[in-house]
Every structure is written in C-alpha cells, then in structure tokens.
Amino acid sequence: xxxxxxxxxxxxxxxxxxxxxxxxxxxxxxxxxxxxxxxxxxxxxxxxxxxxxxxxxxxxxxxxxxxxxxxxxxxxxxxxxxxxxxxxxxxxxxxxxxxxxxxxxxxxxxxxxxxxxxxxxxxxxxxxxxxxxxxxxxxxxxxxxxxxxxxxxxxxxxxxxxxxxxxxxxxxxxxxxxxxxxxxxxxxxxxxxxxxxxxxxxxxxxxxxxxxxxxxxxxxxxxxxxxxxxxxxxxxxxxxxxxxxxxxxxxxxxxxxxxxxxxxxxxxxxxxxxxxxxxxxxxxxxxxxxxxxxxxxxxxxxxxxxxxxxxxxxxxxxxxxxxxxxxxxxxxxxxxxxxxxxxxxxxxxxxxxxxxxxxxxxxxxxxxxxxxxxxxxxxxxxxxxxxxxxxxxxxxxxxxxxxxxxxxxxxxxxxxxxxxxxxxxxxxxxxxxxxxxxxxxxxxxxxxxxxxxxxxxxxxxxxxxxxxxxxxxxxxxxxxxxxxxxxxxxx
Length: 491
Known about the structure:
Blueprint: E1 18-23, H1 27-42, E2 49-54, H2 63-66, E3 71-79, E4 82-90, E5 93-98, H3 103-109, E6 117-120, H4 123-126, H5 142-155, E7 162-165, H6 172-186, H7 191-200, E8 202-203, E9 206-209, H8 218-228, E10 236-238, E11 243-247, H9 250-255, E12 265-268, H10 272-295, H11 301-305, H12 308-322, H13 332-347, H14 355-358, H15 362-381, H16 386-398, E13 403-405, E14 408-413, E15 416-419, H17 425-433, H18 440-448, H19 451-454, H20 464-478, H21 480-490
Parallel strand pairs: 1-2, 1-6, 2-5, 3-10, 6-7, 7-8, 11-12
Antiparallel strand pairs: 3-4, 9-11, 13-14, 14-15
Helix pairs in contact: 3-5, 5-6, 10-12, 10-15, 10-16, 12-13, 12-21, 16-20, 16-21, 18-20, 20-21
C-alpha cells in the first residue's frame, strides 16, 4: 500500500490556500521548514500550504504526484536525555511544479493575493549572481527566477512578500537581495519596481539547524516501511533538535505566524547569537574532535559519545573552553543549555554521523570555527586551553599524509589508509616531508607560525606551541586515545 490522502484521518488541511512558494524539494526543507508549517496548519495557526518549485523534470513517475504530495517525517533522537520516536505524515505541500516545463504556472502563482512567503534552499552554489535575462522561460539561476516572479507580482499589483533563503551563507537574505537588485539593473527594470522591491518586501537572513539524513536505505528502509504499514518514496528521517532562526521585525512576525506552533522557530531582530552558538559549540566541537576521535578508533559520533572517556573530554572541551570563549556576548546559561542540547544530538543512537566525513575541508573549518575561539580564550584568560591543544595536536597528526595517489593524499590509521580531503593537504604533506617526522617540534612551529593560514602567528600565544608539541609527540609515541585519556585522569 502506497501513502496517499486515503490514509489521512483528518483532511481539512488539504483544503487550505497556498500561502508559500518554495524553491527546492530537498530533505532539509521538508524536514524543517515544511515541518513547522505542517505543524502550525494542524493546530489551526498558519493555515496555508506550500507550492514547491523543482529545478528540473524528474525522470519517470513523480513521487509527489503519486502520493498526493504527502510524505512521512520520522523524527528520531534524544530530547532532554530521553529517546524519542515520532512518525508524522506531512500535508503542507499542495503541489510541485517544474521550472523547466511549468514556468508559466509558477509565474501565475505571483498573481495570487494569498501568497505571503517565499522560501529557498538551492545550496550555496545556487545563491550566485548570473548575468542573464529574467524573460527566459525559465531563467537559469534561482535569483533570476525569483526576480522574474517578483516582477510578475509587481505587475499584478499584489502586495510584497517575506523572502527567506535558508542556504548556508552568512547574511543569506542580504546576499539574495543584493543579487536581485543587480539583476534589476542588468534587465533595466523600471525604478518603480525597484522601489516596490525594496520597500514592500522583506529579505530575511536566516539560519537552519537540523540533521535530516533523508530516506533510509536497504534493510533499514524495509523495516521502517513495515513499521509504518505503507510504502513512501519520500520518507525522511530527522533528528529531534530543530532550529529555524529568522531575522525580522514585527511585520515579519505577523506574517510568519507558524512560528507560534513550535519553539524551534526563532524570529528576532538579530540572529547572530544563534549563529555563534551553532558555529562554535556544535560545528567547532565537531572540528576539534573529528581527527582525535577518528585516530582513537571511533567511526561515528554516537560511538564516541558512548565511550566514557570521549564523553567526558567532549563535555569539558565544549563547556569549559569553547562556551566561555565565544567571541560574542552570550548569556552563560543560554550557552550551557545549548551545550546540553548538542550533547544529546551527539549521542543520538539513530544517526550514523561519520567522523571521517566531518574531516572534509578540515583546515578551512579549523580557521573559521576554532581559531577565533582560541584567540578569544587567550584574550579572556591568557592561559592554555588544555582540551583545545589536544584537539589541535590530533588535527596535525591527522593531516600527516603518508602517500599520494593521483593527486590525492592519504593518512594512515592502524595500518589502513584514510583520505585527507582538504585543500591544504599538499601544504601539510610538504611540512611533514621537509621536517623530521619523528620530531614534532619543527612541524608544530612551521604550522603555527603560518600567518597566511591562521591570520595570526599562533606561536606568540603563551605556552601554546610547547603544549601542542608535547601532545603531538606523545600521540605519535603512545597513541591519540592514550593522550586524551591522560587528560581526563589528571585534569
């Protein structure tokens, strides 16, 4: 049996007007933004459905059409220390239109007075300026499609809308508005439209945070659909934690009434606090742990957090060194509460988050997420962050390539090779090759003094070089796990 509206016990939400235009069909949108709207609709709050735009025609049968645009979201995780499971049939999507073959139908939605919100997630690459005519059918880029749609709406004399890009770019709303205005200039659109665009529409910066692995595979999918009692081609798994932070004023709050249905939606004049918490305590902790955990023999995040030694190290790193070093004024209680949520997410038994995948672009992540923490820690306390130094030493050891094949670099763990998928892999290969591999001192000094890499000479930080060198040397001799364990015993 296939999922369809016949399986719904309540169908009143299927009659709601279309109030949202969404560019993208991906699992993040369906597992987070559409989830919030669906929840609000079922509580009689927002009362609006979503028209989804997909960029291409899918081959063969369309699962959305076959399933009456319904899909199941399977929420799995830990909430305040308690494992939770919930299966939700989401009915917020009204229809899915192809930009390639149904562009006129998409433009027709701009004439609807009911449409109030535009959402997008076209990946970071999709939020780029492409110099093109918006009069194509359809335009190539997402910003050009949006500009064409907004111009159609202006000509129809309809009200402006709230536009919320969710692409993972800082200032994504500002960036999208900038691109749209450039497209207006290139296409020589009238000044009255530009004035309407700027004064009657709200481009909101936003931040999304929820792990949505998507559709399970193999036996896991078979077992899940057996438990559901029906087949669902669009089924997706999501963690319990959810956050959609949207920068907006009171007018935006009034329009986005779905925020009243779930505390995971935060509408505020400034969302920098949410960004800093995620970037430092979630992403920054991941970055400082990934090399260490992988070289200690752990494959997944949940596996490491199930280990007493690694759990203690993670907790101390996050709560005692990262939280107080965030380079943004955040209430300590807020940071501690967020930290507890992050630990629950790390422990999630339903997600197989691979450490090796987190090492992707390891150096860039260390630059962006952790070095500002390190510098601010010294500014605040002028002493060595003991957990941070071990994480950094493990990073240096992970970046030690032992072979190069077809331009790709590989390290070694317990006699087996692993990929070093980082743009700085060649640099680190040269550093390790040009210094005595058995003497960590020169390697550490060379890397820490590289101001082009870090934006600062890290050897100037009090005792940092000496501590990293000691830990790296010990890791090379007795092992990474042993060095981590020793800190937990004597700290």
